[in-house]
Every structure is written in C-alpha cells, then in structure tokens.
Design a protein that fits this description.
By secondary structure, the protein is mainly α. It is built from eleven helices and two strands; from the N terminus they run αααααααααββαα. The chain has a two-stranded antiparallel sheet with strand order 1-2. It is elongated.
C-alpha cells in the first residue's frame, strides 16, 4: 500500500525550506532536509502510514524540493517534472509572498512541536472546508481549538450581554433569543478573528480576539477563512 499523498501543510513546509537562503544542497544527507523529514513525521495529520520507513523520509523530501526546481522561473536547470497540482498551486500562491510563507510555516511548526497544541489539533474533526484552506489543516484546526475555549467564550458572551442586553450576530444582526425565545437564550457562536497566518504560540486568546456570530455567518467566515473577515462579511450583507 502507498503512503498518503502530501497535504498542503507538508508542501508549505517543504517550500519554506526550498526558499531558505541557508538551505544547502538538495540531497537526502542535508541536515536541514533530515530535520524537515522528522518534522513532517510529527505533523498531526496522517494517522494511516502503510510504509512507515518511507513515509516522508529524506529521500521523499529531496524529491519534493526537486519538484520545486521545475516550477521555479529563476532556476536555469530542468528539475524534477513529477510535481503535483498541489505543488504547483502552493508554489504559485507563495512565490511572490515569502514573508507570509515563512509565517505560515513557522505557525505549523510551532503547533506541531507543542505536545498540547498537537494533541488538541488531533482531536478536532475534519470538515469539508479544511482541504481548501490556504494555510493548511493544522492552523485551521488550531483556529477551531481556540474557538472552543469554553471559559473565554463565556466571558465574551457575559461582557457583550452586560453592555448591550442581548447577543446578536456581529455580521447580520441575528438574535437567537428574539427568534427562538427561551430555546435560543444565551446561544451564539464565537469566531476567532486573528488571521491563521498570524498564529502565535505565546498569545493567549483575549476577548477582543473573538466575535459573536450566528451559525450561518460563522460557516461563511470559515468557508473563506483566509480571505473574508467579520467586517468584510458585514459589508457584503449590507449590499
């Protein structure tokens, strides 16, 4: 049986090494390639690895970086031409935005190397949105972890209710209690507004990092999480 295909998170990490000025040669004995291989094996993504020995080993990482040579317009050689559509898409997305690439890669690495974060991310169920998230599954699931912190959510709801006397969606104005009566009292969801590419392992979630939104608007925010903010969605609805 073959090992699973590379995920966006893995391609991002490989591309980040490819553009590292101190990368060194693209060979399987390169310490940086070996280090990346070890990191890829720690990612909280793949639980099914039919061939553990070959899974993201240094040889596989070397081949992946060779694929980028074929995509790089600044490379005069030929490179490997077995790159995937995902390799090409991620390369094109970040080729002219290496600062963002480095930020996303650092975020994925921080989550992966933290036992607590990695364990929490592994417990988050998959959904049909994560496959298309620009920053990958790890940071998207970490985003969901922070949205499910019951203590900070309760504080956010209490603060808003004390100020406004109600809980309404910050995008569309929907009020669950007004519509559903007692059944909807106190019900609303929280959206973490810090962009995925701004992840910080030292940053605790604050009340101002959360927005109260209805279920529909929350779903729409996640549907374009890399592009649409609470303010963007509010403006869209006003139109």
């Amino acid at each position: 049986m073959r090992n699973p295909k590379w995920e966006r998170d893995e391609v991002i990490l490989a591309l980040n090494l490819y553009f590292d000025e101190n990368r060194g040669t693209i060979e399987s004995n390169n310490p940086k390639i070996i280090e990346l291989s070890e990191l890829l094996n720690m990612l909280p993504i793949h639980s099914n690895r039919p061939d553990e020995e070959k899974f993201r080993n240094p040889n596989g990482v070397t081949l992946k970086l060779g694929n980028f040579l074929a995509l790089d317009p600044n490379y005069s050689g030929k490179g490997m031409e077995s790159y995937s559509k995902l390799d090409e898409a991620v390369f094109n997305e970040y080729f002219e935005n290496l600062i963002e690439l480095r930020g996303v890669a650092d975020g994925i690495k921080k989550v992966t190397l933290s036992l607590d974060y990695s364990t929490n991310v592994s417990s988050i169920e998959s959904d049909d949105i994560e496959e298309n998230v620009r920053e990958g599954k790890v940071l998207y699931k970490m985003h969901k972890v922070r949205e499910r912190d019951r203590k900070i959510i309760a504080k956010k709801k209490a603060k808003v209710f004390s100020e406004k006397g109600k809980l309404e969606c910050e995008c569309c104005g929907f009020d669950f209690e007004k519509t559903y009566g007692e059944l909807g009292k106190g019900f609303i969801e929280c959206h973490h507004i810090i962009p995925l590419n701004k992840f910080s392992d030292s940053k605790e979630t604050k009340l101002e990092d959360l927005a109260l939104v209805c279920s529909n608007c929350h779903r729409m925010l996640h549907n374009r999480i890399s592009e649409v903010s609470v303010s963007d969605l509010r403006q869209l609805l006003l139109k």
